[in-house]
Amino acid sequence: QLQLVESGGGLVQPGGSLRLSCVASGLDFTLHSITWFRQAPGKERESVLCITGGHSVTHYTDSVKGRFVISRDNPKNTVYLLMDDLRPEDTAVYYCAAARFCDASAMDYWGKGTPVTVSS
Q1: Whole-angstrom Cα distance, residue 76 to residue 48?
Q2: What is the pLDDT of residues 2-27, one digit of tens each?
Q3: Is residue 46 exposed (0-12), middle (13-18) or buried (19+ Cβ within 10 Å)?
Q4: CA 72 to CA 53: how far, in whole Å?
Q5: In contact, 37 and 48? CB cutoff 8 Å
Q6: Rg (Cα) of the chain, in Å, rounded?
Q7: What is the pLDDT of residues 54-109, one digit of tens each?
Q8: CB atoms within 10 A of CB 58
Q9: Could you give the C-alpha distances from 110 to 14, 16, 92, 118, 120, in angstroms and in order?
Q10: At 70, phi and psi to the nearest 5?
């Protein structure tokens, strides 16, 4: 059974850091690109970053450039999202999704999300 499970969310103060993890099972991990999305309260879901099996990265959101880094550990079937210098506007539920390519409009599989709250 294919699963994507996110973890690592929580409450953090502005300027703080979090590392989110997305663990995949039931799929050929190296053949899949993983995209991180987020959805803030009352807003539409937006794509953030994508990484291919070969570690190529696609940036979707200018507001996270220089602050968020995506990486993956293929032997562990895990993709990470390291988030530094967090801001209140980063508050959202963060989801990972899998597809063959980094195409934010064509995800095949989704996790259930992990909430991130940035507040003092």
Answers
A1: 22
A2: 899 999 999 999 999 999 999 999 88
A3: middle
A4: 8
A5: yes
A6: 13
A7: 999 999 999 999 999 999 999 999 999 999 999 999 999 999 999 999 988 889 99
A8: 17
A9: 28, 27, 16, 24, 30
A10: -105, 140
